[in-house]
Amino acid sequence: MSDGHVGADDAARIFEKLRIQSRRTPNQIAGFLVVGGRRVLNLHYGLRRRDLGAYEAERFRNLLHLTVDELARLRDCTMSRDEYIALLRDNGVIPPEPAHTTPQVR
Amino acid sequence: MEADIAATRPIVLLVEDDESGLADRAGLFAASGCTPIAVRSPDDALRELRASPGVDLMLTDIHLLNRERDKSGIELARRVRREHADLPVAGYSAYFTDDAELGDDTDVFDETWIKGKMTYTQIKETVSTCRALAVDHRRRRMERAFRALDELRRRHEARRPEIEMLRELVPGTAGRAGIEGALLEAGYRLRLVDADIRGLTKPIIVWLLRVEGRTEAEVYGQPALYADADNDREAIENLVDLMHLYMAELREDPDAVAGPALDLKAFLERVVDLDP
Fold first, then answer.
1. Which tens digits make up the pLDDT trace of B135-167?
2. pTM over 0.80
């Protein structure tokens, strides 16, 4: 399915897949995407409706920095967490992965 | 600046107890290039005026309560005059049919239409007159703001946040004029949220939009901070809850932040009480 529809169940599944450490307000679930031990992206969705509605789904997609097709792939489980993070890096949303520094052997 | 004023829609507060009459007037004002805020009682009108610094005119029915000879629209106008001396206020009445019935009471208004039930053409004339008053008020408000901004810049060269705050209070100025104009055109309203609610250290400005039968609130300049609810008040409360939640999360390890979350953290540290 390559549409932008997102239900609350879909949002919860995306949170789980991205390992978002979420907290609740009375009406929302929110948290940060953590990459390399650092919080890089805030994400949230409302709890009051089973279906987020077209407008909120669009806002949720914007929070994720994804196109409609990319969101569908993330939602439908064909995009992994690592692929999503690589996509954010490719698009310049989050900093590149730091180069590994290995001790030089003399 | 003239072009900026022309590009923005003056905000008109409409007060009318009759729901269908209110909706009709709101439609006419929207069609004439204004952004209407429609309320049905004096209390709601005063609340909107406190919360929305951008209102450019109030138009109220005079007979607002269903009781004989009620003139609570005039009481409302007097109170608005006391609290917002500069704001143009206009009144109309279908209940009263003669200026003489109201006597000097109508002096509180800049314009009145006391003609009994108005024709469509007469209502359109009120819209046109009110729009002209509202545009004029907006022009004066912006001129004052520009003068204040110049003065602030001169006196406090290094204090950017306050200057930013003032700039943001005047939609349609500076570099964001096009975006703000488009948002206002699309039905968004700007609203100031007082600093004293739920541990905010500074007032924040939010965009409000009715969409899909709900109100969405978004922090000005922070598109990743938004929340919705059935009405304006609850949407703002949900938004502030969300800001506290994010701040609590970020405070757990303040140095372990990168990417877009850095901007969010910098903003929240400015406006959210760290020790509520």
1. 888 888 777 766 766 665 666 555 444 444 444
2. no
Q: How many Å apart are CA A57 and CA B200, to the nearest integer?
A: 28
- Residue A23 has its nearest CB partner, among B245, B257, B261, at B245
As for the ipTM of the complex, it is: 0.86
Q: Do B257 and A95 touch (CB under 8 A)?
A: no
- The encoded tokens of residue B58 equal 């109030």
The residues with which B257 forms a beta bridge, in sequence order, are A39
C-alpha distances (whole Å) from B15 to each of A82, B33, B138 are 55, 18, 20
Taking the Cβ of residue B186 and every Cβ of chain A, the question of whether any pair is shorter than 8 Å is answered with no
For B:254-273, CB contacts with A below 8 A are: 256-261, 264
Partners of B224 on chain A (C-beta within 8 Å) are 42, 62-63
| pLDDT for residue A99 | 59
Q: What is the pLDDT of residues B238-273, one digit of tens each?
A: 999 999 999 999 988 888 999 889 989 989 998 887
